[in-house]
Every structure is written in structure tokens, then in C-alpha cells.
Design brief:
WH-like_DNA-bd_sf (chains A, B), DNA-binding, alpha+beta, Arc Repressor Mutant, subunit A, globular, three-stranded antiparallel β-sheet, Metal_resp_DNA-bind_regulator (chains A, B), homodimer, about 110 residues, Tscrpt_reg_PadR_N (chains A, B), PadR family transcriptional regulator (chains A, B)
Amino acid sequence: MNETFVTNWKSQVKKGTLTFIILNVLKNHEYYGYELIEQIRKHTEIEIAEGTLYPLMNRLKTEELVTSKWVEQETGIPRKYYSLTEAGIETLSQMNIYWENLEKSIKKIIQ
Amino acid sequence: MNETFVTNWKSQVKKGTLTFIILNVLKNHEYYGYELIEQIRKHTEIEIAEGTLYPLMNRLKTEELVTSKWVEQETGIPRKYYSLTEAGIETLSQMNIYWENLEKSIKKIIQ
DNA sequence: ACAAAATACATAGTATAACAAAGTATATGG
DNA sequence: CCATATACTTTGTTATACTATGTATTTTGT
């Protein structure tokens, strides 16, 4: 049927929610990029392309909402770990307020 | 602080959610464009620019998820009323399933 | 031992949709 | 009569998810 429309819509819904999800995941825990993708896939069924995540993380760094540090591994490729900055925590709390409102509004409309 | 980031983020969150909201609002009731903006503003605090809504409605018409009909007024400018098509109802039900999942996932992450 | 898959990061190009801004036209209130 | 509200439309800009591709290392399969 209208497969493409729904598929496309899902992609559009991700715009914005992805940022929100990433920041929330980093709230309690440091993660490296690849791990973020895995964690979110496991816990939420949301698939994030690598080509989506890494540019997103760089935007968040430019905005100074997250910082990153390279961590060498005993074996394997070094990993870039991300964590929230103070500004990131503050911004996230504003986003949480908006989301809660939005979610309530939508719930009211769907009912 | 990072005003622009949050503002911008809100705009991104609307991508997708707006379509979803509009279709859900039209599920139980016919509305004309201007009325949709007002209804949603009153009931949800979500602001929709006219330059956002009308192109969106045209997309939904092109996708054949909604139909429209002009209704002449005794006084004032004619109104274009929108209603869901069968395909629109079907598509919306798929979207509702995805949204419910997403919402649960995000709730789990935020907790 | 070698190929394939998984891990880990990065970038370029494309498509989509929200928004600001401007325009058209009618009606109403001060 | 002028500003504001109603009602729809179009143009150009911007942000971001995605596909595709590339690099490099490690693990797994046969």
C-alpha cells in the first residue's frame, strides 16, 4: 500500500527524536559511538545508521552539549567515548519538558 | 544559553509528528486548514505556521491520505475542508503502532 | 591460512520538511 | 479608513536523516 509514505514518515520522526534519545542515553552513562547504536537497537528497536550517528555526535560536540575522549584499547580499535557537558544536561532538561508536553498532547489527540 | 539549539530541535521534532497529529485530528472530524492550526494551538500548545500547514496538506492530498472540498460561506472566504480517505485511515493505524512503540522506548530511556 | 563479517570511525551527496516571509483576498472593529 | 483577523498560497532557506563509500582493525568461519 503506502509503504513508502510510512517508511519516509518514520525517518522524519527520527529527526529530533534521535538527538533527544542520544542525550538521554548519555545522561547516566558514557558510551562510544558504535556502542550507542547497539544499545539503542537492543533496548528500543530503533535502528540508527552509522552515517547518521557520527555526524550527529559531531554536531552535539560543536554545540558543546557533549565532550568526547579517545580511549585506547588493549586490543582493537580505539574508541571515542562521549559524555554530557553541563550545558548538555541543562539543554536536555528543557528538551524533556517539551517532550513530556508533546507526548501528553498527542496522547490527548489520539485517545 | 543554547536557545537556538532547543528552538531548532523543536522544529525538527515536528518533522513527522505534525503529519501524525494532523491525521489523528482529522480521524474523527472534518476541519479546514486555518481551523486545524487554531484547534491544535488551543488544545496542545503546538504552534503551526501557515507556511507549514498548507504545503503539508497538499502533500497528504498528493499521497491520497486526505481529500478536500471547497465550502462556500454565506459570508467570508470559502474554506477548504479536509477529511481522511480509506488509505489515510489505514496509514494512520500503522503510524499509531510505530508511535506507541517509540513513545514506550523513549519513556524507558528517560525513566 | 584466508575470506568474510564484525567492530569502529568518518565524510560526501541527496531528499525531505518546517519555517520565515511575502502575497492574494475578504471581513470586521475602532 | 486602517489595522487586524480570517483563509489560502508560494518561494527560498535551513537542518538533518539516510545511502553510499571509505579507512582500518579484529574476530569468526571453513
